[in-house]
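Good morning,

Attaching, inline, the backbone tokens for the sequence recovery test we're adding to the shared suite. The designed sequence is right after.
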């Protein structure tokens, strides 16, 4: 094993060196040489300028076990680096494919804090609290130039990323293919291996010229480029406007303000503005930081494109960056690439610096919740560092609010919006822009029901309607895929596509929909071997490369940018094909049904129905998704008391709901017009009408439609119990807030803390473990930094107090006429009567109910 570990370590180190050579040497004109395996043990490779001064130093280590890098071990490495003479002048990074344990994460966070807010005293105090005995760290000046980069991917993944960057560089001088980039990468990889193994230290150096020769890149193709100027900015804005106008038949959907914390429904906007009223999509551009959520196919990506057009017209510099494929430290490079693509020319290094520091820069991040947690963490870290260095506007999109909002780190909660659905009039307007009449629209509405509210699905249904209107969402995707394949002259249901679906089923289970070339080939190889064991595909010959080429030819896979890897045409196609593979028994559902698998599960139920096993797993592992599934026709049926009881137990989990008490009894009555259920008795049985009438007088009960299935009834009972647990045990009354500013500054923090404490109690006690974390993630901070102004006329002839504030983890409320808070940092305004109109107990229950509604796509039973 030691031999294998050694090979893995060397390969990982050389792959990281290659990627850094491309980024630091080829792109950075100040870098002149790279030294592999320097004389100092702490240096695996370093980049030097023409005078021999260190610019960047790396130590790269690989480990298979997760969470094994601790603060003590990392601190020893950093102290060894700190002993170098030039440690306070060069950048140092510790790079690993593994993750950190708790103390390691504390050390990394401390280093990041010192980079943003240097304080020698705070550094030493914090270092003494890390781990059981504290850690010794180098000087503050050294530490501020240090980075700890974890979970950087396997050797193949690192090489795949390098290939994409090299492909971009090759394309500056000639038309290049992926094979050209692979060959260039292999040539440089071989060169680094040979140099790194030389016993003579002087010969373990490779120059910039040698690197360019190995890659087949001419120096002239890297020079020049556009300088950033007013004319360049105008050209870029014009290009962004053209991109937005090229979207045929686009109908901008309105937005509704939603709760990142439900309090934001009231607090992020002035009192006069209702947060539940639909507003034009460009209203989001008025927020410094915001998230935009919507279901698969709702139009998030195309809305970002539209927002880019609107922002450009307003004189801003919008840059769209996909979340897929992001790695730590890549944000500036990806911004540069996005701008260069629009301009059709490369930028100078000075132009990039000017762009990144422009006050009008707007970052539009697409698909945050659809990537794996490691990618999301890397993106969030980059955005945090970027925002700490400059003021920049950010808007992120995703399907899941609780996941999307995680990249918007900081004390202040971002504004949150949701795309509205496509209403009846909008569907007809959209159909007319595509040349279809109202008759076709009416037929599609009849066949597909509520799913036609989804813009992408509706347009796809229009496009396939000539051959007959499909009966389900899955049928729409199947027919559309057939059309894509026919256009390419290829099959839509052969072993190539079957392998893609099986591979996506596995990748989505790991949080991936986009992957690099090597990951795709590896995954397809495994799935093809499995498929050939099935009778339907026995004897069908297909290589992983054939399947990958087939998917690209059909248009199922595209490359968004050099970092994103190969991504699906739209994420929902990955979900559909994965679900088709599951429905056909080619692959199994993942071990855990986490939120990233939601759309795949919905497609699976659409195609294969709702099995008892899947129903129970949803209730136990993903109750929020269970609420969405319960609204599907496949969830209807004839409720059985034992089945309902088992699902209720799973939904309750480890929470405490007084409605169910200590008894697990459940009595079910079936009438020819309804089904009745009473939480009474010791068993779970069917009862007659007379018995049910008696039980329902003294025990909690409800009536539901007669075709209500097990899951639907279990969800209704669970939601009723949760709502009952959120009610105050005694009647509460919220007195009118004072009109005295001094009294308000004392009362408002107490009120906010009371709401926070009640929310924490309700989340902890009344929600099961799979729900708690997601709800807590979107509730956000309950405090605020605010000041109270002088009284003004309020409702009913009384007085009210204006409050200017921003959301924060702390509660700091002061008077406006005292030395207090900088007014420019306040993001919203309201009045004390608005902020405190409910009793803390009622307010906490209200916010929690809205959070559950948001997380279930408004399928949470509200009554």
């Amino acid at each position: 094993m030691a031999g294998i570990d050694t090979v893995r370590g060397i390969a990982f180190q050389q792959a990281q060196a290659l990627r850094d050579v491309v980024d630091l040497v080829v792109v950075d004109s100040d870098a002149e040489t790279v030294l592999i395996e320097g004389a100092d043990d702490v240096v695996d490779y370093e980049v030097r300028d023409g005078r021999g001064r260190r610019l960047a130093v790396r130590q790269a280590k690989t480990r298979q076990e997760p969470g094994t890098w601790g603060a003590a071990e990392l601190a020893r490495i950093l102290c060894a680096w700190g002993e170098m003479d030039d440690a306070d002048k060069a950048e140092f990074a510790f790079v690993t494919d593994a993750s950190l344990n708790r103390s390691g994460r504390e050390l990394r966070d401390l280093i990041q804090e010192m980079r943003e807010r240097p304080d020698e005293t705070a550094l030493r105090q914090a270092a003494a609290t890390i781990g059981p005995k504290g850690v010794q760290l180098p000087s503050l000046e050294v530490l501020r130039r240090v980075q700890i980069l974890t979970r950087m991917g396997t050797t193949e993944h690192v090489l795949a990323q390098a290939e994409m960057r090299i492909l971009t560089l090759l394309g500056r001088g000639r038309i290049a293919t992926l094979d050209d980039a692979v060959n260039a990468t292999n040539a440089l990889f071989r060169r680094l291996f040979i140099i790194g193994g030389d016993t003579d230290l002087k010969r373990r150096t490779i120059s910039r010229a040698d690197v360019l020769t190995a890659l087949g890149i001419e120096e002239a193709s890297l020079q020049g480029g556009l300088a950033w100027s007013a004319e360049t900015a105008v050209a870029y804005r014009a290009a962004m406007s053209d991109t937005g106008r090229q979207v045929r038949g686009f109908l901008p959907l309105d937005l509704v303000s939603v709760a990142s914390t439900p309090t934001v429904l009231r607090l992020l906007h002035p009192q006069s503005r209702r947060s539940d009223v639909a507003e034009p999509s460009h209203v989001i551009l008025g927020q410094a930081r915001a998230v935009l959520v919507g279901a698969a196919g709702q139009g998030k990506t195309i809305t970002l494109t539209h927002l880019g057009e609107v922002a450009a017209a307003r004189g801003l510099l919008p840059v769209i960056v996909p979340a897929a494929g992001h790695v730590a430290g890549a944000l500036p490079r990806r911004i540069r690439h996005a701008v260069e693509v629009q301009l059709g020319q490369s930028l100078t290094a000075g132009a990039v610096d000017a762009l990144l520091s422009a006050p009008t820069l707007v970052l539009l991040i697409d698909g945050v919740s659809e990537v794996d947690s490691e990618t999301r963490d890397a993106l969030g870290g980059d955005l945090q560092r970027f925002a700490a260095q400059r003021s920049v506007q950010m808007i992120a999109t995703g399907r899941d609010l609780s996941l999307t909002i995680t990249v918007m780190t900081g004390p202040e909660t971002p504004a949150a919006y949701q795309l509205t659905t496509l209403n009846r009039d909008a569907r007809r307007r959209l159909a007319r822009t595509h040349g279809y009449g109202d008759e076709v629209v009416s037929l599609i509405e009849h066949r597909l029901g509520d799913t036609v509210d989804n813009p992408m699905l509706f347009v796809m249904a229009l496009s396939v309607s000539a051959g007959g209107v499909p009966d389900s969402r899955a049928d729409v995707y199947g027919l559309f895929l057939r059309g894509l394949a026919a256009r390419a002259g290829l099959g839509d249901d052969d072993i190539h596509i079957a392998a893609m679906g099986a591979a996506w089923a596995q990748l989505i289970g790991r949080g991936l929909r986009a992957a690099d070339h090597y990951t795709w080939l590896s995954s397809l190889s495994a799935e093809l071997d499995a498929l050939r064991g099935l009778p339907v595909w026995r004897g069908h010959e297909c290589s992983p490369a054939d399947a990958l080429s087939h998917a690209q030819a059909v248009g199922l896979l595209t490359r968004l940018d050099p970092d994103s890897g190969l991504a699906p045409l739209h994420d929902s196609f990955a979900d559909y094909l994965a679900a088709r593979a599951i429905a056909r028994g080619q692959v199994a559902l993942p071990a855990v049904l986490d939120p990233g698998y939601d759309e795949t599960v919905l497609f699976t139920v659409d195609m294969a129905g709702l099995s008892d096993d899947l129903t129970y797993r949803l209730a136990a592992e993903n109750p929020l998704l269970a609420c969405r599934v319960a609204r599907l026709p496949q969830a209807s049926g004839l409720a059985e008391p034992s089945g309902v009881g088992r699902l209720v137990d799973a939904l309750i989990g480890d929470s405490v709901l007084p409605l169910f008490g200590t008894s697990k009894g459940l009595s079910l009555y079936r009438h020819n017009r309804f089904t009745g259920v009473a939480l009474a008795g010791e068993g779970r049985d069917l009862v007659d009408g007379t018995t049910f009438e008696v039980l329902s007088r003294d025990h909690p009960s409800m009536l539901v439609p007669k075709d209500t299935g097990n899951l639907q009834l279990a969800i209704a009972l669970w939601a009723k119990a949760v709502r009952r647990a959120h009610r105050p045990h005694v009647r509460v009354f919220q007195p009118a807030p004072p009109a005295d500013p001094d009294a308000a500054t004392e009362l408002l923090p107490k009120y906010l803390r009371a709401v926070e404490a009640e929310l924490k109690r309700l989340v902890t006690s009344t929600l099961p473990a799979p729900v708690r974390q997601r709800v807590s993630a979107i509730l956000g901070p309950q405090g605020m930094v605010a000041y109270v102004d002088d009284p003004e006329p309020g409702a009913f002839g009384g007085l009210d107090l204006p409050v200017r504030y921003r959301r924060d983890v702390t509660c700091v409320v002061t008077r406006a006429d005292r030395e207090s808070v900088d007014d420019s940092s306040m993001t919203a305004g309201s009045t004390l009567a608005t902020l405190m109109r409910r009793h803390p107990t009622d307010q906490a229950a209200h916010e929690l109910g809205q959070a559950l509604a948001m997380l279930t796509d408004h399928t949470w039973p509200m009554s």
